[in-house]
Design goal:
This protein is 70% helix and 0% strand. The chain is mainly α and 37 residues long.
């Protein structure tokens, strides 16, 4: 599972586990969510 960075936002949302495991992904996911909103 090394494609965590390549995974799209919706994938991170579905998994959720990677967001908690990877702090970097968490920051990116938050930024993307804010932009989407």
């Amino acid at each position: 599972m090394n494609q965590s960075n390549s995974m799209p936002t919706w994938v991170v949302m579905k998994t959720g586990r990677k967001v908690r495991t990877s702090p970097y992904s968490r920051r990116e996911w938050r930024n993307r969510k804010l932009k989407r909103d």
